Amino acid sequence: KFYREIPPPDLVIYLTAPLEITIARNANRGKYEPEDFVRLRHAQSSNLQFSKTTVYKINTDQPFEETLMEVKKAIWNAL
Length: 79
Prior knowledge:
Elements: H1 2-5, E1 11-16, H2 19-27, H3 35-45, E2 54-59, H4 64-78
Parallel strand pairs: 1-2
């Protein structure tokens, strides 16, 4: 009931990465999760749908500075 009453967000910044990159990043994190779990979560989140919301899908398989610039552009475009 409570979730139905929450208004949709004005903006969604949807950060994505290829599965291989995601698995490699997981291996280098301080909090390790099993590869099967990472594969499952990646599959579940690869086709998220948001209605009535502006969605900027940004691929993070690029240098950090480029990803950051795309995120900033998305925010500025939403203002």
